[in-house]
Amino acid sequence: MPKILIIEDDTAFCQMLQKFLTRQGYGVSASFNLKEAREKLATDFFDIILCDVRLPEGDGISLLSKIKEKSPKTRVILMTGFAEVKTAVQAMKKGAFDYISKPFTPESILEVIASALNANGSKELKLHETIKLSTISANKSTNKIIGSGEASKKLQQYIELVAPTNMSVLLIGESGTGKEVTARAIHNISKQKDKNFVAVDCGAIPKELATSEFFGHIKGSFTGAIEDKIGHFEAANGGTLFLDEIGNLSYENQVQLLRAIQERKIKRVGSTREVSVDVRIVAATNEDLTEAVAQGNFREDLFHRLNEFSIEIPSLKARKEDLMLFVEFFLKNANAELNKNVNQLSKEVKQIFFSYNWPGNLRELNNVIKRSVLFTDGDIIGLDAVPQTLKTESEEDELGDFSKHKFEKERILKALKQTNFNKSKAAKLLQITRKTLYNKINYYQLEV
Ligand SMILES: Nc1ncnc2c1ncn2[C@@H]1O[C@H](COP(=O)(O)OP(=O)(O)OP(=O)(O)O)[C@@H](O)[C@H]1O
């Protein structure tokens, strides 16, 4: 039975949450202050800690490093008030697993707990991914890709067509278009829906660690292997393994991956025992893999194995007829998260939204809406709340692609200079992911 510790000074709320989670089958302890929590942590192990950010004797974040040091496997989920979201995001960088804004619904806390229990080690490092999980949850119940336009309908049809089969699926689309959301939608209506969905960002795994990440290892098999660890294949056994940014795998790792997929057997690093694995593979790429194959950077046999069925995820630009539907959806999420009641865009903002190119696609739209809601006091998003870059760029967009690219390149260079070439900070400033920034740096061949 997974064990949970709640640290919360609001005793009534704490007891209510304890009761609710106990009824759901968890072993739940509660502490009303940090001292009590420290005592419990000294003698007991918890799979999950639900910790209030603000406590009378200090903040929950101060506990984080201690917990991580003493019990690295424990996942910490912070419970925040609206104004503390920023702090919680900082805390995630320090190793918290996720945050949830109060008040929350029973479904949303169960969902965050479930994803923390299912998460693999690399998850904690991927800040945007954990945030993403909370943002898409509202859409999960329907398993539907929103949209009534042609491109969205076609996407939904492909998902429904391929999901019940055992075919490997290759998702092709620009960054932020919803490849992972699509992979989850496929999983959620597949025969494997009750088993794990494991998402792996192949671009984030160091080459030397990839074998152990995919196939696991046994204690002592290499320096740093301090205990037995299962890999992504075993974690996803019976379910779906989502391999994002597949084009970033080294040639050697591609060989290993192909062998595992074909033979349906893996060996943990350091072990001679073969383990049978049955996983549905959904892979994703934002580059032209056929080009990579032609240049000898991606194995043709693996490409064909992954590409039994391919789906092109349309860019937001190609889904403009659904733009307002997405706006409504993200508005609803942002209002719930930030405790606001913003329900529309002003005429001018709407115009900007329609003329802007949305290079960061749905992720960018979601970020812009969240930020604009945060800056809006009334119920309508006005020009003031919209990032300046969007306004300038939407004017530029009208001048055509050439000037847009020129502008984008300059904007990236400016952000990099402003942040002393710190890519994480620059990506944040530009409101894109680090991955997108790297792609754009390559695209514009910037020397950084
Ligand atoms: N169909 C959808 N409905 C609602 N939101 C969506 C949908 N698709 C994508 N999103 C939003 O866009 C964000 C990005 O989606 P996702 O991570 O799946 O994109 P991606 O193509 O995998 O990006 P990357 O290539 O950068 O990993 C999600 O967090 C979610 O907020």
TrEMBL record:
Q: Which residues form the Sigma-54 factor interaction domain?
A: 145-374
- Molecular functions per Gene Ontology: ATP binding; sequence-specific DNA binding
What keywords tag this UniProt record? ATP-binding, DNA-binding, Nucleotide-binding, Phosphoprotein, Transcription, Transcription regulation, Two-component regulatory system
One of its GO biological process terms is: phosphorelay signal transduction system
Which superkingdom is the protein from?
Answer: Bacteria
Any idea which residues bear 4-aspartylphosphate here? 52
Checking InterPro entries in the record gives:
AAA+_ATPase, AAA_lid_NorR, CheY-like_superfamily, Homeodomain-like_sf, HTH_Fis, P-loop_NTPase, Sig_transdc_resp-reg_receiver, Sigma_54_int
Residue ranges of every copy of the Response regulatory domain listed in the record: 3-117
Please indicate if the UniProt record lists Lyase as a keyword: no
Question: By its UniProt entry, which CDD domains does this protein fall under?
Answer: AAA (cd00009)
Name of the protein this chain belongs to:
Two-component system, NtrC family, response regulator HydG
* Native organism: Flagellimonas pacifica
